[in-house]
Structures are given as C-alpha cells and as structure tokens.
Amino acid sequence: MHSGTRRGGGGFADRRSGVRNLRRTEAGPERPGAKRQERKEMTEPERLAPDELRTLFLFERLTAEQLEWLAARGRVVEYPAGATIHAEGAPASCFLVLLSGTIAMSARVQGGELELFRTDYYGAYTGAFNAYLADQGVPQVYPGTARAVTDCRLFELPATDFGRAVREWFPMAAHLLEGFTTQGQAASDTVARHERLVALGSVTAGLTHELNNPVAAVMRASARLREMLAEMRDKIGMIIRSQLPANQLEAIAELTGRALEHRREAPNLSPLEASDREGELADWLEDHGVSGAWDIAPTLVAAGVDLAWVEKLAEVLSPPHLEAGLSYPVRALESDSLLDEITDAAGRISTLLATAKQYTQMDRAPLQSFDIHEGLEATLTMMGHKLGDEIVVVREYDHSIPRISAYPGELNQVWTNLIDNAIDAMEGRGTLTVRTGPENDDQLKVEIGDTGPGIPDEIRSRVFEPFFTTKEVGHGTGLGLDIAWRIVVGRHSGVIRLESVPGDTRFQVVLPVRQPDSQSDSQSD
What CA–CA distances, in Å, run from 383 to 128, 411, 440? Predict the structure, then answer.
C-alpha cells in the first residue's frame, strides 16, 4: 500500500471476504410484482463522481475526460473491521484507493503473518498497481495481505482498466516504472541480501567462536577418558593378580564409592590451600612406597580426599598392595571428573544453541510478548567474539519493567547493530553499558552506551541516513542505523535517540509496551 510517500507494501486480494460492495437503498419488503428495473436500481454500485476522484492525490492531475473514464469503470466498496480486502498470492484483480478507515498490510513469514504497516491516509492505494506490466509476463498476484482494521471504504478499479490507463495515458512513466520494477528492485534486493549475509556471517562467526571452547573441552576430556578406561582395566587386572582377599576388595570398593560421593561436595580450595594439601598427601604417599605420588595427589585433593581417607585405605591393604589398591579409586575419581567436564561442556553447547535460536527467533511467531532482557542477553552472547577481553560489559537491568509485545527477532537486529557500532567505536577497548528502565507509564527504554570518542555534532543528524557511514571503505554499508531506525520507529512506533560527548555515547531506544492489535494469526501464536 502506498500513501504518496516512499513506503513499502504491496497489493493482494481476496476481496470477497466480508466485502459490502453494493449500495442498497432503505426499503421495506418487496411488493409482489415489483418491476425488474426497480430491483436493479436497488443494487446499483456506488460510483464516485469525477470531481470526487480529483480530490485523491493520485488522480488530481488527470483531465476531465480521464476522470470520467475512471468514474465509469470504478466503484466504491466497503469492508467491515477485520475483513480481508485481498490475500497474499491471490490473482491481482483490482486496484484500490482508500477513502476512509484504516488498513493493515501484512505478509507471510515463517509460517505466521508479519504486519508491515498500517495507514489511514486518504488516497493511500494498494492492490494491482503493477497491472501495467501485464503484457510483460510478470505474474499478477497480490504480494501481501490487506485487512480492514476499522470499517473501510475504498475506490475499486479493475486491474485491466488500471493497467490500460497507465500504459496509454503515461507511456513514458510506464517505461520508467517498468525499469524500476525490474532493475531498481533487483538492486535493492542485492543490497538487502548483502546485509542479511553480513548479519548471518556475524552470527555464524560469533556462534562458531563461542562453540569452539566447549567442543574442544569435550574432545579433550573424551580422549583422556578413553585413556583412563584403558588404564583402569590394567589396574583392575593388577588387583586381580594380587589375589587380595574378598574383604579387602570390598573395602577398596567401599572407600572408592565414599570418595566419589564426597567429591560432589568437595569444598573449593584456594590455589595455596590446594598446593599445601597436595604436598601433604604426596609426602604421605611417598613415605608409604607409592610411586607417582605427585601425579596422584592433585586428583585426590580435587575430590576432597584427605589423609584420613588414605590412612583408612592403608589399614585395609598392606604396603606391598597399597599402590595397586590405590590405583582403582584414583582412576575412578579422575574418570568421574572427566565426565563432569563433558557434561558441563555439553550443557554450554546446548545453552549456546538455545541462545542462537532465541536470537534468530527460529520456530517462533513474529509478534510475541516477551522479556526484553532475553534478546539483549542473547545478542551479547552472539557478539561475545567481538567483545574480547578488553571490553567490559556493564549490565544495568531493571527487571521490574513489564514484558513487551513486539517483534523480538527484529529488535535483536537493532541490538546487534547498536552493540556492533559501539564495539567498533571503542576499537576493542572500553566499557559497554546496557541499561533498561521504564519510560512513562506505557513505555520502556533500552540504552546502549560506549566510551568511544563520540560522534561529532556536524554529522550527528545524519547517522540514521541510509548509506551514511564513518567507517573505512569495506567495513560498513551505512545501513545498520537506518535499519535500526526503521525497525524501532516504523515497525514498533517507538523512538530512537542519540546522545554523544567524547567518552560517553548513548543510543536510547524507547518502545511502547503494547503494540497496536495485530492480525489474529500473530496473536494466536
């Protein structure tokens, strides 16, 4: 739908759903024998007079003859609130101009419907406005869906008549529009595709970087565990060959089980405390003829094993068999520790994948009620590879703010662009502050701040312009803040502000807690 400004949209149409397209006169029950002509007049379509058509900005420069031609072929149609004016993918059979009411435009996205925008602008138009391309083999279907938010009246013109009028009355304009449709749209698609690929590359790089450590930990621990199991088999064989009596074997198994249970509750020791205990245990083991004491002691100390435990083992086993009897619990404790490492790393991988899913909003409805902090945290996680070790992240979250009804996937793109710009501004060193809080009674505010050099006054008013960038060639397209502005202002009816002095730059995003009622499909999801 268009309203005279540069706004996206499209036509669509199943205009039979809920449409009232005939003006009926008030009358009582039809009299028997009523004339056929009288019934015909009762269902005559409502027409707009040429002078009325001239009040629509689209037709204001047409000649009187052209207006009469349109008036004879068009009609007024009415749709009640909630009715579908035209549906995505249906044959584009008519061109429509809004006379009164409010219309919402939407498109199918990931199994749901995403509202693009809504308008009540007098003269805004939608439908088959590419009908002039009918002879060029261009599929004439509605690219989206239009619904009546309130009761609506529209001027409807058959697509064939509209296309003919454009081609015959404005041949040069038709050629220009055709060029824009085929070349300009292709260029826009290329730029948009590039932006999506850059965003995808950033997400992929971040996810890969974050996954690298836990994956490496799993591989390292599983390889060591395989070695431990092989060594454990050897030690068990050694114990069997020692021909220890059953009571001693049971004592070893009992002490091992007790050590494994105690390991779960082992206190966290400081490096100095751990070193002292390891030295104490190693000395005791050496005094009792156990080889490799300094390799064994750290495993025992990490599991919370103390001198009392090894002395108890020494009471059960005689010195010649102490080393063989000790080998099994040591390997069991180390194997259990490796299993914990694998579990922790696998949990980290699972958390990262869940974060990536939340960030991309995979398998979720476009419009949701959610906690704004979830998206901020997911974005910080995905941007972790760029934050590095020298950027300190300060979170000042107000968790008392209510859940927001919005499009989380799009807002995550806003947070990504703002945080990415902040990181670039600080050149890898500084403080990134993410702050949330209430703004008035029905709004909330998200602030992204950095300690970079700031944005000069002379360019501050241009930062939201498309293709404007202060980055070096090849390091930015100049679309990040433009996209953020369109998502915040255009999609969420919010506000995005900039405050900047050297050492303190803040982008503030103010969002309404509740969005206007969207499509029933989105709400049900």
Answer: 43, 15, 31
